[in-house]
Amino acid sequence: xxISSPIMAQEHxxxxxxxxxxxKESKFNAKEVIFGHxxxxxxxxxxxxxxxxxxxxxxxxxxxxxxxxxxxGWDFFMSSKFHHGHExxxxxxxxxxxxxxxxxxAERKNYNPQQIVAVNAAGEIDxxxxxxxxxxxxNVVQMMLALILFVWIMLRIAKKYKKGEGVTxxxxxxxxxxxxxxxxxxxxxxxxxxxxxxxxxxPYLLTVFFFIxxxxxxxxxxxxxxxxxxxxxTVVLGLISFVVILASSNKHYWGHIFNPxxxxxxxxxxxxxxxxxxxxxxxxxxxxxLFANMVAGHIIxxxxxxxxxxxxxxxxxxxxxxxxxxxxxxxxxxxxEVLVALIQAFVFCMLTAVxxxxxxxxxxHHEADGHSTVAMDDAVIV
Length: 382
Hints:
Blueprint: H1 16-25, H2 30-38, E1 43-50, E2 56-62, E3 64-69, E4 73-78, E5 92-94, H3 97-101, H4 105-108, E6 116-118, E7 132-133, H5 138-162, H6 174-194, H7 198-218, H8 231-248, H9 251-258, H10 265-314, H11 316-359
Antiparallel strand pairs: 1-2, 3-4, 3-7, 5-6
Helix pairs in contact: 2-10, 5-7, 6-7, 6-11, 7-11, 8-10, 8-11, 10-11
């Protein structure tokens, strides 16, 4: 409000208006960078290389595209055929932020970046053709790589135990690293919440813990995908836990929901619907907690890095001046994210065990060895 500058009106081409448009188009787009990293994509994009003529050449790894259309049938090709959204291939086109921005405002809400759509001979979107995208996106590929690594590590450790290594002698190498973690999950998560039934659920709890942890760590590698920051990933994990919780329930659990003991009849009309909703709220809390925590950290890191380019767009001196501060905070948040990756894997595993223990309510008894489960009130879980 205190600083102003004169603006010269210009009606013909090549004037101030044209220059301002070019400047706006070349300006750093933080929103595009942030969502380009957080959202799913058909390639692993690392960086853009600018040649002598000012053209950007993305450095990326293309991924397989698998499409099915009732009209066109099946199509298989690599995502590089789209040339990063600049060309069409076999009647299909991948949308980018630029193509969506050029659409009428009423149509933008119907499309998303990295969405593959059918086009007509003129290269325009054909909404009459339905497209089912079954491609191996970077989230899918990275999740498969994490799964392969997870299975390989566990089979390698199990093979050593079968040979007697780590049984009669002290564990070595990967055994020595993994055994304390497995023991921690068993003694601090499974036993206190599931009592003498812990062995039945320990394989699932360990699988969930390590699968989330490996994907969290993978997501911290520059250029990789944030798999656990994808709501579809956390929804599947939450639904699997939901099925396990329901399969572990008994008549005592459902009796406390639909007929809470020691509660006046008038209060039951209010309490029963709340308790019934709680059955679905528990897995929903697992889904949202993991998704929100993992995606938030990545957005914060990219925002801090983006400050350098935003200030550099205003003034090169400002860009260099804010760089040390931005990098310092980025490194700090990055180490925090490593801690969050461990905590979120533990929290998901812990709450799953707690909810399973609540579903088995009525079977638990106080024992002297302390390995039985005491039903926990929902208010304890924050």
